[in-house]
User: Fold these one by one.
Assistant:
Number 1:
Amino acid sequence: SQKIEQNSEALNIQEGKTATLTCNYTNYSPAYLQWYRQDPGRGPVFLLLIRENEKEKRKERLKVTFDTTLKQSLFHITASQPADSATYLCALDRGGGNNRKLIWGLGTSLAVNP
Amino acid sequence: DAGITQSPRHKVTETGTPVTLRCHQTENHRYMYWYRQDPGHGLRLIHYSYGVKDTDKGEVSDGYSVSRSKTEDFLLTLESATSSQTSVYFCAISDRVADTQYFGPGTRLTVL
């Protein structure tokens, strides 16, 4: 079955450093992969989507890479700030037609220390 | 929260009682989803809808039913609540299938 793995350990970094989060998947070739942010007690919020034919995508301080050979996506937050502290989820699509759905990783908790 | 509301936001109920959660959207998105989120399991799809009166099961649909009589409303019913259904429930919407999803604020349900 399809499986998504994200860094299971919480990530603690110092303010100003670059945070790098990993999303690995097996047994599937998604058309695209998405990253979301989730704060405690709230629903996930979409951040970035990267397609299988894109190597890299950027949005402000965020950068996502997608390596379909390694079956891996990396999510970078540069110049990190305490406000970036949250749980980050990756999701990829599977299936086809109206049966196409997203499957989700468990998320990686990021803490940015001032 | 992208024009999505969920009600109630919190509910405590007893085992064996029926419970209905409501999701309402003002975005006119075609697709609507119900997820549950539990520690160690992440987000799991319960049911989804791809149009009015068009619904299908997700990966954890046992014990749940849904209805969508209007574009803007998607109801999730626990026919006879069990303690294993204690969870946080999220509704999500998207304009295209399996595309970017926008989530509601969640409903925390406790079944005693």
Number 2:
Amino acid sequence: DGGITQSPKYLFRKEGQNVTLSCEQNLNHDAMYWYRQDPGQGLRLIYYSQIVNDFQKGDIAEGYSVSREKKESFPLTVTSAQKNPTAFYLCASSIFGDLGSPLHFGNGTRLTVT
Amino acid sequence: GESVGLHLPTLSVQEGDNSIINCAYSNSASDYFIWYKQESGKGPQFIIDIRSNMDKRQGQRVTVLLNKTVKHLSLQIAATQPGDSAVYFCAENIKHGQNFVFGPGTRLSVLP
């Protein structure tokens, strides 16, 4: 089955440590995204990538970094500079170039930083 | 957008009744809209989408209505079942854009 795999499901880190969240897709989608979800709020875009080796900042990119070395993979690093890193992180992908196509989401990684 | 608080609006319906979930979108230039369902601890699942050249679209047990005049979107679920209990949220996209704007969601609770 095609889909998006995020790992791990739960992640715990101490304050001051960087942590990398994995996202892999086998849908052959060009575009990939990282969103952050906090209670009672809509999803907020962190970074997105429309093609390999290229990515753009979203609305809340500060304290995060990404890479897109392969079409299938779009890992997100939460750095120690991110002031409120505890959140539910969602990776998504979509067909690039389509005049509006739905995002397909993974099942998320819940990050807790103490 | 800014936080609207920790508590989502909740809609409680009896099993078998129809549900209507509403969403006010923000940008009159948005031309593509999606409804997602999110169960606890999972990622959002695509339910149905609609483009701005339509005002109604039907799927299996679901109907989306779009009113561009008042920038309003609604999701109707027929014969609501316990498995429909989840948070539902809408997303809007501006033409040629690759960023969606998401609403905070409505929690649907199905009563036995």
